[in-house]
Amino acid sequence: MINQTNRKKVVEITNLKKSFGNQVILEDISLSLYEGENLVVLGKSGTGKSVLIKCLVGLLSTDSGTILVFDENITSASGKELALIREKMGFLFQSGALYDSMTVRQNIEFPLRRIKKELTEEQIEEKVKEVLANVGLTDSIDKMPSELSGGMRKRISLARTLVIDPKIMLYDEPTTGLDPVTSNEISELIVEVQKKYKTASIIITHDIKCAQKTANRIVMLDKGNVFKEGTLEEFEKSNEKLIQSFFN
């Protein structure tokens, strides 16, 4: 577990509540993310993991509670303030969400041209090649997304996210739909990104192998609440039936 002494909180969620009609999704969630750590949010399908991450980036409004990102309150931020905060955050969607009509190069250039407008064409080219090298897909630069496997698309999506140098990475079920070998490669890549880019990351997953590979700390959600928080070792030694259902 990463030593949190003297580490700055980059995300602090306090008493977060979110419902859809009469259905309570997040009843009372409080958790923190520290600089440089990988925090895995674990839970069965339907426990509110993806809703939590969408609230964190302002894609969903909250009913009550606060979400601080770099000490800025997401829940009360204006559209312009929210846009500036999002520029410091990378979001790897479950689907990958590449633009099918664009080449790999164009997909990765897209956020650079929108956010880093001061870059020259040479700097853009250099940045695109750098992130592709970091995900091991330099040779795919002029391919279309339809020519790539599921695992390759996920890597390209990660490269597109990393190209703007995010301080926080958010991974929504990064290994879902991938075969075991590719899932393991993506989990290893998440750890490499943490080391190389010094990111703080929240990894939403129900894949225990991904959690075991990537987690510095784990928060388990159940029925809209934090069920347990601790290290991987603490989870693996737990006698709680819910936790054992994941680890056994």
UniProtKB/TrEMBL annotation:
Pfam families: ABC_tran (PF00005). It comes from the Bacteria. InterPro entries: AAA+_ATPase, ABC_transporter-like_ATP-bd, ABC_transporter-like_CS, P-loop_NTPase. SMART domains: AAA. Residues 11-248 form the ABC transporter domain. GO terms for molecular function: ATP binding; ATP hydrolysis activity. Gene3D superfamilies: P-loop containing nucleotide triphosphate hydrolases. Keywords: ATP-binding, Nucleotide-binding, Transport. PANTHER family: INTERMEMBRANE PHOSPHOLIPID TRANSPORT SYSTEM ATP-BINDING PROTEIN MLAF (PTHR43023:SF6), PROTEIN TRIGALACTOSYLDIACYLGLYCEROL 3, CHLOROPLASTIC (PTHR43023). This is Phospholipid/cholesterol/gamma-HCH transport system ATP-binding protein. It comes from Flavobacterium lacus.
